[in-house]
Design goal:
The complex is a heterodimer of chains A (85) and B (646).
Chain A (H helix, E strand, L loop, with lengths): L1 E3 L8 E7 L10 H10 L7 E7 L6 E5 L2 E5 L1 H4 L2 E6 L1
Antiparallel strand pairs in A: 1-6, 2-3, 2-6, 3-4, 4-5
Chain B lengths: L2 E9 L5 H9 L16 E7 L2 E7 L11 H13 L3 E7 L3 H13 L4 E6 L1 H6 L2 E3 L1 H8 L3 E3 L8 H14 L11 H14 L8 H9 L3 H10 L1 H18 L3 H20 E3 L6 H10 L4 H33 L2 H8 L3 H38 L1 H14 L8 H7 L3 H7 L6 H11 L5 H15 L1 H25 L8 E3 L8 H36 L1 H16 L6 H7 L5 H11 L10 H13 L4 H11 L1 H29 L4
Helix pairs in contact in B: 3-11, 5-11, 7-8, 7-10, 9-10, 13-15, 15-20, 15-22, 15-25, 17-18, 17-19, 18-19, 18-27, 19-21, 20-21, 20-25, 20-26, 22-25, 24-25, 26-28, 27-28
Classes of the chains: A alpha+beta (85), B alpha/beta (646).
The complex binds guanosine-5'-triphosphate (GTP) and magnesium ion (MG).
Chain lengths: 85, 646
């Protein structure tokens, strides 16, 4: 099932299916952010484990490719993953 | 002839490039445990084996693209200036992501050496790396290093010389999937003979990736190659179902991952329960904020307490010499000038400024080197969105409490021009160490520490309000946060002390001459009665509107040079450190409030000009002067009406 990264619970892992930034609902940020995410290792097929999420629409912290990455909620909402249970 | 080698340090953010730079050159690049400290290239030199080796420290980047400032600076340097060697500093504990960048440097076909740094951290995480195997696979000389302990730095230099003398082997480029490889080959053919200053293969890959800089150049000399590239990018997108740049990045990561898995062995680790626990607590929804508040308060009280204590000790010691000096100098004009102008100023600096500055920097650098600042950025992200910024902007703001100059420069970690301007503007409103000297040394000392604390709280409120206004004036969506979270570590004591001493040295080097000269000027003005005239001219503002003693007007003008001057010169002018005999509590508060808010010092203004241009810098300065005076007067009247200090 494909869900946004923000809907994963703490400790859950998902595999990235698509990143909806640079077009569609996420057009505002353009390609810069999309490229930055890819450069940081968030490419389709990458496993992401949620470590924690900050309150009040704060960012999430995730485990990606052996390191920890903080991602703003507005971006994380546009990263879609297939949940691995 | 002198033999010169130019060596650039490049790599991901927060891997230890600046530590290596400092080790090699003996210079003082800023070091800390969060990504994005170095925002501008720095140069240094050393002599080794008959060579003059020029070292260039570059901002940390994750890719050779051109979307952010630090990427632009580093890439421009590597591509345009073509250093003789690039030392790619790699964080051994995050090998895959670091190799992703190494692969890009290899594609660029520049002479390369890998410094496999932080092997101690990797080992603690249970990661063991076979660096010889890595060297073999990549075809790039690799040296394991522990930069903070100076381990491997020498070997690194040997490799540089060796490579320079014997020549570097050209590493084999990485292979993409066949559907991409065939297209790269065709593009290479299309670009052949176009006279680009890049390697053909790299240029071909970059136009497939949609790299704007390279595209711009190709458009001039070979526009038909771009049409071809666009068509191919579409085809690749159809095959993979993702945009072509994403596909290429993906494949590069695939290769990086494969190499990483091949050379590293991950052993089951002895968990670091304490570090995990601290991480958990300091980013917790509730405890995180409580801990943040406590940290700030503890820092505040520690700086104040230590500062006061040191100040008293130093005052007692130094004023003990007064009679001796007076005895030597006798009395008269010379004594007035030298004692009143110079020595009083120097003593006041030592007894008023240094006691607060030193403890503050020790604490700030320790916090910075622990990795805590990144956690604060994480916690404050949602809040910062309310002023059109994101969490990362909070880091330069915190650094602003040390000095506004690096804070303002540090705003380059923000992605857009608009965010850099807002963050830079707000950072000039943060009371730096010099302003804290005035707040703590005047208000804190004579009215009680809680009044000083109120001033800081008022300042934060003002920062927020101005942030909101700036957000309204410069509307736009806040770029969202994407930030590596560094692991916590015990602050490296030597680094912390070294950086503090360096700060102190800088302070003394710049502050003393300024203080001595302005001390002399003000004393001379005093003796010539000019001081009186200037003060009179300013008195409608200082006396009538702000309710301050006349002489403070001149101090506020000189304070533009350095903010702590206001307090130091006040002590000099009055010839006394017992300021409460000359100022009422209300005057102290109003004065400190104004010093806290009116234009930052000349150094900060100069930085603003450099970052944002004349117009915007002047606008910031003018706004802050008027605002400070306006608020100061209102504040004075409000407290009068409330009869708080009766
Ligand atoms: N344990 C350990 N820590 C290291 C080592 N090298 C660097 N560090 C720490 O890593 C952190 C980052 O070092 P810097 O030199 O500031 O990193 P940088 O690559 O210049 O970072 P940016 O300028 O932000 O790109 C600091 O806290 C250093 O003390 C090492 O070999 N071992
Ligand atoms: Mg650096």
């Amino acid at each position: 099932m494909e869900i946004p990264l923000t809907e994963l619970k703490e400790g859950e892992t998902g595999v990235i299916t698509r990143i909806e930034i640079g077009f569609g609902r996420g057009w505002r940020w353009g390609r810069g952010i999309r490229k930055r995410l890819a450069d940081m290792g968030l490419t389709p097929g990458t496993k992401v484990t949620i470590i924690r999420s900050a309150p009040l629409n704060g960012p999430i912290e995730a485990h990606v490719r052996g390191y920890k990455l903080a991602i703003g909620r507005d971006i994380a909402e546009r990263i879609f993953v297939e949940v691995q249970r | 002839m002198e033999k010169r080698i130019r060596v650039a340090l490049a790599g991901n953010a927060n891997v230890g490039k600046s530590v290596i730079f400092n080790q090699l050159t003996g210079l003082h690049q800023h070091i800390g445990n969060w990504p994005g400290k170095t925002v501008e290239k720095a140069e240094g030199e050393l002599h080794f084996k008959g060579y003059t080796i020029e070292i260039i420290d570059l901002p940390g980047i994750y890719s050779l693209s051109t979307f952010s400032l630090e990427e632009l600076i580093s890439r421009e340097y590597i591509i345009n200036e073509r250093p003789d060697v690039v030392i790619n500093v790699v964080d051994a504990s995050v090998l895959e992501r670091n190799l992703f960048f190494t692969l890009q440097l290899m594609e660029l076909e520049i002479p390369l050496i890998i410094a496999l740094n932080q092997v101690d951290v990797a080992e603690r995480k249970g990661i063991k790396i076979d660096y010889r195997r890595l060297e073999e696979i990549l075809g790039v000389p690799t040296v394991p290093t522990i930069a903070i302990r100076g381990k491997g730095i020498h070997e690194l230099l040997f490799k540089v010389i060796e490579g320079f003398e014997k020549g570097f082997r050209k590493p084999a480029p990485i292979k993409y999937g066949s559907e991409i490889e065939t297209r790269i080959k065709m593009l290479e053919e299309a670009l052949r003979g176009a006279g680009l200053r890049y390697p053909l293969r790299w240029a071909a890959i970059k136009i497939l990736e949609g790299d704007e800089e390279v595209i711009k150049e190709v458009r001039r000399v070979r526009p038909e190659a771009l049409t071809l590239a666009e068509k191919m990018a579409k085809e690749i997108e159809e095959i993979h179902g993702h945009p072509c740049p994403t596909v290429i990045t993906s494949e590069r990561y695939e290769v990086a991952g494969k190499i990483a898995r091949e050379v590293q062995r991950i052993l089951p680790t002895i968990k670091l329960p304490l570090s995990d626990k601290i991480d958990y607590l300091t980013t917790h929804k509730v405890y995180g904020y409580i801990i943040m508040a406590i940290t700030i308060l503890v820092t505040f009280y520690a700086v104040f307490g230590l500062g006061n204590f040191l100040s008293e000790v130093l005052t007692n010691v130094l004023y003990g010499y007064e009679t001796i000096f007076v005895g030597i100098l006798g009395s008269g004009l010379l004594r007035d000038l030298i004692w009143g102008g110079v020595i009083e100023g120097v003593i006041a600096t030592i007894t008023i400024a240094l006691p607060y500055i030193v403890p503050f920097y020790l604490i700030l650098y320790a916090l910075e080197d622990s990795g805590y600042l990144a956690r604060i950025a994480f916690l404050m992200d949602a809040f910062m969105h309310k002023i059109g910024l994101h969490g990362k902007a909070f880091i330069p703001l915190i650094l602003g409490y040390g000095c506004n100059v690096p804070a303002c420069l540090g705003c380059r970690i923000m992605e857009t021009e608009r965010e850099r301007l807002i963050a830079g503007f707000l950072s000039t409103l943060i009371p730096c160490a010099a302003r804290s000297v005035v707040i703590l040394g005047l208000v804190g000392k004579y009215l009680g520490v809680e009044w000083a604390l109120y001033l800081y709280v008022v300042d934060l409120a003002i920062v927020f309000i101005f942030g909101r206004i700036a957000f309204k004036v410069l509307p736009g969506e806040a770029m969202a946060l994407i930030m590596e979270m560094p692991d916590y570590k015990t602050p490296h004591l030597k680094t912390v002390i070294k950086q503090t001493l360096f700060r102190l040295e800088e302070f003394l080097k710049i502050a003393f001459p300024v203080i001595v000269i302005s001390g002399l000027i003000i004393k001379a003005m005093d003796l010539l009665n000019v001081l009186y005239i200037v003060s009179k001219i300013m008195s409608p503002v200082t006396v009538v509107w702000l309710g301050l003693p006349e002489i403070l007007g001149v101090l506020l003008i000189l304070g533009v040079l350095r903010k702590e001057l206001t307090l130091i010169l006040l002590a000099t002018l009055l010839g006394s450190q017992n300021l409460h005999e000359h100022l009422t509590p209300l005057q102290m508060l109003t004065f400190s409030l104004i010093v806290m808010l009116y234009v930052p010092c000349v150094a900060t203004i100069a930085t603003c000009i450099k970052e944002f241009g004349w117009k915007k810098a002047m606008l910031i300065a003018v706004i802050e002067v008027f605002f400070a005076i306006l608020l100061g007067g209102l504040f004075y009247r409000a407290l009068m009406a409330l009869e708080i200090f009766r």
